[in-house]
Amino acid sequence: MKSRDEIWREWQNLVNMTPAELRRWLDTGDSKAVGDTGGKGESTGHKSGKRILTIKDTKKADLTDDDWAHMAKVVGYIKRHTAQGGPDEDKEHSDWRYSLMNWGHDPLK
């Protein structure tokens, strides 16, 4: 298991959208249209994006064990999906990019 220092470093590097950018993104139809909903309406990634905003508004010293666990999950998701490289054409408007953006990472930045 990674240390909190490792999680923090990776989180800082990989979650590259500002809270304002992520908030605006999560309000779009494209954000709401991608990802697995598990039949429950809102996708896992979209829910994660909202949780990321809460974490970003929390001081590091005040993060809970659940926050740290979610941060590790976010880091893992971003690493796995960026490793896929995305589509060969039109990455800008792809579900691959949109899904990553729900998790706080814009691969085109």
* End-to-end C-alpha gap: 29 Å
Number of domains: 1
Contiguous runs where pLDDT drops below 50 for at least 5 residues: none
Annotation field: number of helices: 6
Largest sheet, in brief, is: none
Q: Which percent range fits the helix content?
A: 55-70%
| Structure class | mainly alpha
- Note the run of SSEs as H and E: HHHHHH
Gyration radius over CA:
14 Å
Strand content: under 5%
Mean pLDDT across every amino acid position: 94
Write down how many β-strands occur, each being a DSSP E stretch of 2 or more residues. 0
The backbone outline, from C-alpha atoms, is globular
Describe the structure.
The protein is mainly alpha-helical and 109 residues long. The chain has one domain (4-35, 42-102). It is 59% helix and 0% strand. The protein is globular and about 40 Å long. The model has no long low-confidence stretch (mean pLDDT 94).
